[in-house]
Fold this protein.
Amino acid sequence: MRHLSHTTSYRQRRIAVAVTAMAVVGLGVAPAATASAALAPVGTAARTTSTPAGLTKAPAGLYLFQYTYRNHLKIGGGNFTLGGRVYVVVKYNSGQVRYGGTVTAKTNSGVPGGAVYLETNISSPCAPGNNGYAQAYDYSTGTWSPRLPVPICVRFD
């Protein structure tokens, strides 16, 4: 059986794939900015927010995740404004606040944009079921993250 010779090296193919991937990501991000301008009411400009000096504006798509650390519920997230203040709140499904705190978004190599981490005083792990949610507010952009369903341990005495 005869093998065809490869005209490009493995390294060249990896570079070509990486460049193509970056181009696809760039195409996916660019229309979002123009879409918001196109949705602005006729005769008005799309709302833009200025970011204070020294802050890097957050990319679209704020997100949160949860985990247990030192037997407490911990909330983390990404895509926040780097160096900006972020308010993280944990509420019962009824809307009652169980825990809230403000943190500064910092760099983390595994998280895009500014990363936030907040350790709550809520015991974890709990019995299965999510009776609450966590949400974060990026002060620099004035946007809320989507709600993250979380279990909030409740004592029965």
